[in-house]
Amino acid sequence: MDTKRKSVGDDIHIRVKVFSTGGTIEKIYDEHEGILHNSPSRFDHILTRMRLPSVQIDHHGLMGKDSLDMTDDDRILIKDAVQGVMDDFDAVLIVHGTDTLDQTGALLHREINDPKIPIILTGAMRPFEFRDTDAFQNVNESLISCRLLSPGVYCVMHSKVLRFPNVRKDRKLLTFVKSN
User: Fold this and answer.
1) Which residues contact 137 (CB under 8 A, 6 or more apart)?
2) Structural contact between residues 146 and 90, judged by C-beta atoms closer than 8 angstroms
C-alpha cells in the first residue's frame, strides 16, 4: 500500500487532485443566448450528487474551454499542473473535452516520464445538465479507477479503461478506443 494513503479501519482513504478544463461535460445552457458554454465549472455540482466517504477530492478549475479551442500552451499548462501535484496525491483526474482528450493524454504520456500515480482523463459526450448524459457514469468510473489503477496515463469512459499511448476518439461509435 502506498504510504500516502490513510487506512481507517478496513477502508482506505485516497486523495485525488481534480483539474477541470471545460469540455462538454461542464457545458451549461444559456437560455438568454441560446448557446452552450463552459463557464463556470460544473464539476463541484457533479460531486455533490456522489457519495464519496473515502475519497478526499481537491478540485481546481484550470480553465473553462471547449477542447477544440485548446492550444499547445493549454496542454503544457495541464502537464505542468499535474507534475506539480503528483507527490501530494494518490491520483490525478483531469476532466476534459472529448474532442482533443486524446491529444492531451498523448502529451502527458510522452512528457511525464515514469509517473508515480495514475493520471486519468475523462469527459462526456453530453453535458452533465442533459437528462441522457454520460457525465455521472464517467466521473464515477474515473474515481473508482483512481483507487485501482497502477501508475500511468489513462482515458476512463463508458466502462472502459484505456492506457496511453494510442488512445483515440472514435467519432462513429462516440467513445474512445485503442488503436495500433
Assistant:
1) 158, 159
2) yes
In order, the DSSP letters of 23-78 are SGGG-EEETTTTEEE--S--HHHHHHTS--TTEEEEEEEEEEE-GGG--HHHHHHH
Residue 2 lies in a domain: no
Counted domains in the chain? 1
Record the pTM.
0.84
Tens of pLDDT, residue by residue over 43-53, are 666 777 777 77
**Cis, bond preceding 53 (omega within 30 deg of 0):** no
Whether residue 124 contacts residue 134, with contact meaning beta carbons closer than 8 Å, is answered with yes
Return the closest-CA partner of residue 150 out of 168, 163, 169, 135. 163
- The DSSP bridge partners found for residue 11 are 8
78 in any annotated domain? yes
- Report yes or no on 172 lying in a domain: no
